[in-house]
Amino acid sequence: xxxxxxxxxxxxxxxxxxxxxxxxxxxxxxxxxxxxxxxxxxxxxxxxxxxxxxxxxxxxxxxxxxxxxxxxxxxxxxxxxxxxxxxxxxxxxxxx
Length: 96
Hints:
mainly beta; Immunoglobulin-like; two-stranded antiparallel sheet; 0% helix
């Protein structure tokens, strides 16, 4: 399952750390650079069991301060017949 999101921007720090949580547990961190005029797409691919349901949230840190976590995205993984991996299906946002 691949999650994508637009990079945040911080006027004091071009490089930010993104903390990705699955079901409330930190599963990875990603670091990315952005400017006000250039906010690239960030990406994380997670390996989960087909048929499983998960809630993902993301927080952003500049090294000193960390944002509150994002609204939760709840997804159910389904098997991708071509690659035999899980992908997101029927994603919906929920307030955590």
